[in-house]
């Protein structure tokens, strides 16, 4: 792997972007046909050759915006949730219930996001993700794509590409990375999941909405529902 110059980096990123175009699943096969696997391999490939990004073990800076999750991502995440101990599942139910006063707001936001530019629609809406327990993601291995890419990628916005992450992470990069560092575009991975999700008649919703749709009689239902009535 060669990351010496920004040109080398862009060549590597393009190779991964090409690979994800061939991916057929999300979090199922754990190989080059799995969008998560391709993306995680890209990030681990980069991190061997470049300075560490601001994310550190226990950092949860990205967990205060409501993650928008596709049906395919929820299906990949749900088994991780069901594997948690009963005590942790109870805690997640409590945390999801504590957000129920936001039901209407999230419903309205979801309708706006599905019909408009999502970054603009989400704007400054913030809430702690109900999957956070003791400051850590309870379902880290199954977390959605947006949580995997935050703080280390670029997103296309109009005719520009902009850093996808917090101001703190951006400042960290400016300080610690060589000036001519290139970062990978996140869009090919997001687009691939959207295409696969659409092809499987999936939907999208915010993570608390998925949780609410899977709680019955104060317990999680035994299987992921692909298209709940949000
Ligand atoms: S799913 Fe996990 S990583 Fe993503 S926002 Fe929630 S707690 Fe953070």
Summarize the structure in words.
The chain is mainly α and 230 residues long. It has one domain (6-220). 47% of the residues lie in helices and 10% in strands. It contains ten helices and eight strands. Strand 7 (215-216) and strand 8 (219-220) form a beta hairpin. Helix 1 (6-20) packs antiparallel against helix 2. The protein starts with 5 loop residues before the first helix and ends in a 10-residue tail after the last strand. Bound molecules: iron/sulfur cluster (SF4). The site of iron/sulfur cluster has 10 residues, from loops.
Question: Total domains, how many?
Answer: 1
With strands numbered from the N-terminus, the spatial order across the biggest sheet is: 1-6
**Rg, Cα atoms, Å:** 18 Å
Number of strands: 8
Q: Which structural class fits the helix and strand makeup?
A: mainly alpha
Summarize the structure.
This protein is mainly α. It has helices at 6-20, 35-49, 71-82, 86-98, 103-115, 118-122, 145-149, 167-176, 187-199, 207-213; strands at residues 68-70, 132-133, 136-137, 153-157, 160-164, 204-206, 215-216, 219-220.
């Amino acid at each position: 792997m060669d990351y010496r110059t920004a040109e080398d980096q862009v060549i590597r990123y393009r190779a991964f972007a090409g690979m994800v175009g061939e991916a057929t699943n999300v979090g199922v096969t754990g190989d080059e046909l799995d969008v998560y696997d391709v993306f995680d391999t890209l990030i681990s490939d980069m991190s061997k050759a470049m300075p560490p990004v601001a994310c550190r073990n226990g950092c949860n800076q990205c967990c205060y915006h409501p993650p928008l999750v596709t049906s395919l991502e929820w299906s990949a995440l749900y088994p991780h949730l069901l594997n948690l101990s009963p005590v942790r599942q109870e805690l997640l139910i409590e945390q999801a219930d504590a957000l129920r006063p936001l039901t209407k707001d999230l419903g309205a936001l979801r309708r706006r996001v599905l019909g408009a530019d999502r970054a603009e629609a989400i704007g400054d809406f913030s809430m702690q993700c109900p999957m956070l327990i003791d400051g850590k993601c309870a379902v880290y291995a199954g977390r959605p794509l947006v949580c995997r890419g935050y703080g280390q990628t670029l997103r296309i916005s109009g005719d520009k590409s902009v850093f996808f992450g917090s101001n703190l992470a951006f400042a960290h990069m400016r300080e610690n990375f060589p000036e001519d560092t290139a970062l990978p575009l996140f869009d090919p991975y997001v687009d691939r999941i959207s295409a696969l999700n659409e092809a499987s008649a999936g939907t999208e919703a915010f993570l608390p909405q998925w949780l609410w749709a899977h709680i019955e009689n104060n317990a999680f239902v035994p299987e992921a529902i692909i298209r709940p009535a949000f």
